[in-house]
From TrEMBL:
Limits of the Acyl-CoA dehydrogenase/oxidase C-terminal domain: 227-377
Superkingdom classification of source: Bacteria
Domain Acyl-CoA dehydrogenase/oxidase N-terminal: start-end pairs: 15-117
Protein name per UniProt: Acyl-CoA dehydrogenase family protein
Domain Acyl-CoA oxidase/dehydrogenase middle: residue ranges: 122-200
Flavoprotein among keywords: yes
Required cofactor(s): FAD
Database matches in PROSITE patterns: ACYL_COA_DH_1 (PS00072)
Pfam families: Acyl-CoA_dh_1, Acyl-CoA_dh_M, Acyl-CoA_dh_N
UniProt keyword annotations, A-Z: FAD, Flavoprotein, Oxidoreductase
Family to which this protein belongs: Belongs to the acyl-CoA dehydrogenase family.
Length: 378
C-alpha cells in the first residue's frame, strides 16, 4: 500500500482520515473496472460511486459547502487505483461546480441526481478557438421570448456525448471580452444540441465536440446574473484546480509503488536493482517530488476550506507542480521497468498515458506559470 503517513499532517481532521480509510477499502473491492467500452465504463463508475456514497462529496446543496480537502483525498485515492474512476468522480464535481457555488434552489435539484449517480455532468467551456483564452468565447446567448437562444460550438468536452446535464458558458455581451459571458444549465435533451464528433485521446476518456444551433434555453437556465460567467468559471476552477494536482499525486504514488516493487524483485548480476545507488537516487527523487506535490496540493485545499475567498495562486502552484512532478515520477517508473515499462497495458505504461492530459486541462502548465508570476509581481 502507498505511504499514508501524510494523513497525519495538520491539514487534515479525523473525518478526513476516516474517509480516506473507508475509500481505500471500497477501491480495493471495486477497482479497477474494464475500460474496453469507455462510455459504458464511465456510466458504470458513476453509478458505483453514487451507490457507494462518494459522489455526495462532489457537490454542495442548500446550506452546504464543498470541502476541497475531501475532494482532493477522493481524487488522489481513486487515481491511484483507476484513472477512469478519478475522471468519473471529478467530472461530477467540475460539471456541477457552478451550480454548487452559484445555483438557485431549483437548479440545485440537479445535484440530487449527479450526487447519487443518477445523472452524468459536463463542463462546457472550451471552444475550437478559445481554450486557455476564455475571454475569446464565441458561442452566443441572445435573449428571445421565453429565454435564451444559444448558437455555437464547444469542444474537448469531458463526458461529451454521455452527459445528462451541462454547464454551458456563452457570450451575452454585457461588456467586451471576459466581462460579457454568462453561465447556463443545458440538459442533454435540449432541442438543437448535437454531438458532432467524438474525440480519441491517448488515455481513452469520453470527449466530444458539441454544437448548438437554434437552441433555446429557458430564462431559469441562467446561473447567477448575466455577465458573471467568467467569474463563475474562475471560481469553479479555483476549487477544482487543486483537485487536478491531487489526481496527479495519486498517479505518482502508484508509479512509485510499482517502481519499488519492480526494483525489489528484479535482479541484476545476482543482486536486486534496489541495491544500486543510482536506482536509490532515482527513488529518492521520486519520493521528494511526491511529498512536495502533496504539501502544495493540501495547502491549497486547506486554505480554501478555512475561508479564503480565492486561492488562485495556491491552486495554480499545486496544479503546476503536482502535474509536472507526476510526469517526471511516472517517466522514471517506466525507465526502472525497462522494456516492460513500455509494454501496452502495463500499469506504468497506462499511467504514462494518463498523466499527460493533466498538464493541459483546467489551465495548461504555462497558464499556471503566468497566473503565479502575476501574483508574485503583484
Amino acid at each position: 500500500m502507498s505511504d499514508r503517513s501524510f494523513l497525519d499532517w495538520p491539514f487534515f481532521e479525523a473525518r478526513h482520515r476516516e474517509l480516506a480509510a473507508a475509500l481505500e477499502t471500497w477501491c480495493a473491492a471495486h477497482l479497477p473496472v474494464d475500460h474496453g467500452d469507455v462510455d459504458a465504463a464511465c456510466r458504470a463508475l458513476v453509478a458505483m460511486l453514487g451507490a457507494g456514497g462518494w459522489l455526495r462529496h462532489s457537490g454542495a446543496g442548500e446550506g452546504e459547502r464543498l470541502d476541497v480537502r475531501t475532494l482532493c483525498l477522493i481524487r488522489e485515492t481513486l487515481a491511484r487505483h483507476d484513472g477512469l474512476a478519478d475522471f468519473a468522480f471529478a467530472m461530477q464535481g467540475l460539471g456541477m461546480g457552478a451550480v454548487s457555488l452559484f445555483g438557485t434552489p431549483a437548479q440545485k435539484a440537479w445535484l440530487e441526481k449527479t450526487r447519487t449517480g443518477a445523472a452524468i455532468a459536463a463542463f462546457a467551456l472550451t471552444e475550437p478557438g478559445s481554450g486557455s483564452d476564455v475571454a475569446a468565447t464565441a458561442t452566443t446567448a441572445t435573449r428571445v421570448q421565453g429565454g435564451w437562444l444559444i448558437e455555437g460550438e464547444k469542444t474537448w468536452i469531458s463526458n461529451g456525448g454521455i452527459a445528462d446535464i451541462h454547464v454551458l458558458f456563452a457570450r451575452t455581451g454585457e461588456a467586451p471580452g471576459a466581462k460579457g459571458l454568462s453561465a447556463f444549465l443545458m440538459p442533454a435533451d435540449a432541442a438543437g444540441l448535437e454531438t458532432v464528433e467524438r474525440l480519441e485521446v491517448i488515455a481513452p476518456h469520453p470527449l466530444a465536440t458539441l454544437r448548438m444551433r437554434g437552441m433555446v434555453l429557458p430564462e431559469e437556465a441562467l446561473i447567477g446574473a448575466p455577465g458573471e460567467g467568467f467569474k463563475i468559471a474562475m471560481s469553479v476552477l479555483d476549487v477544482f484546480r487543486s483537485t487536478v494536482g491531487a489526481a496527479a499525486l495519486g498517479f505518482a504514488r502508484r508509479a512509485l509503488d510499482e517502481a519499488l516493487a519492480r526494483v525489489k524483485a528484479r535482479r541484476i548480476q545476482g543482486e536486486p536493482l534496489a541495491g544500486l545507488q543510482m536506482v536509490q537516487g532515482h527513488l529518492a527523487d521520486m519520493a521528494v517530488k511526491i511529498d512536495a506535490a502533496a504539501l502544495l496540493v493540501y495547502r491549497a485545499a486547506w486554505t480554501k476550506d478555512n475561508g479564503a475567498a480565492r486561492v488562485t495562486r495556491e491552486a495554480a502552484m499545486a496544479k503546476l507542480y503536482a502535474t509536472e512532478a507526476a510526469q517526471e515520477v511516472i517517466d522514471m517508473a517506466v525507465q526502472l521497468h525497462g522494456g516492460d515499462g513500455v509494454r501496452h497495458g502495463s500499469v506504468v505504461e497506462s499511467l504514462y498515458r494518463e498523466i499527460r492530459a493533466l498538464r493541459i486541462y483546467e489551465g495548461a502548465s504555462d497558464v499556471q506559470r503566468v497566473v503565479i508570476a502575476r501574483s508574485v509581481l503583484g
